[in-house]
Amino acid sequence: MEMERSYYLVTAKPAYRNLESELTARHESAESEPALGRVVLEITQGGFGLDVVDDERQVKERFLEYLFMTTGIDLPRTVEAFEEYFELEPIDELINLDGDT
Fold first, then answer.
1. 12 forms bridges with which residues in the sheet?
2. Distance CA 36, CA 11 (A)
3. Residue 37 belongs to some domain of the structure
4. CA neighbor of 7 nearest in space, from 48, 51, 38
5. 100 located within any domain
6. pLDDT per position as a tens digit, 41-75
7. I need a surface site. Which of 20, 30, 67, 91 has the fewest CB within 10 A?
8. How far apart are CA 54 and CA 62, in angstroms?
9. pLDDT band at 79, cuts 50/70/90?
10. Is pLDDT of 32 > 70?
11. How many structural domains comprise the chain?
12. H or E element in which residue 21 lies
């Protein structure tokens, strides 16, 4: 049974850019990471034992967890927190021009 993959485009809102600026200003001695741009998320949906009612909710919460693990920015792992700082757009089709699977 092949798992279905879903793809989403995440774009940071100005509120997130402001948050990044505030955190960078507080930790001037630390090297600043490049600002988060637009990113494509891929997530496997479905499969035995998985009962995900709301795919987008899962993506939003897991992205915030990823953000914490990679940047240390600790936002609540909630839909409301995600929607305050980011926009999520489903991608209808992902085309691999190299033909790799």
1. 86
2. 8
3. yes
4. 38
5. no
6. 998 876 554 555 578 899 999 999 999 998 888 99
7. 30
8. 12
9. very high
10. no
11. 1
12. helix 14-26
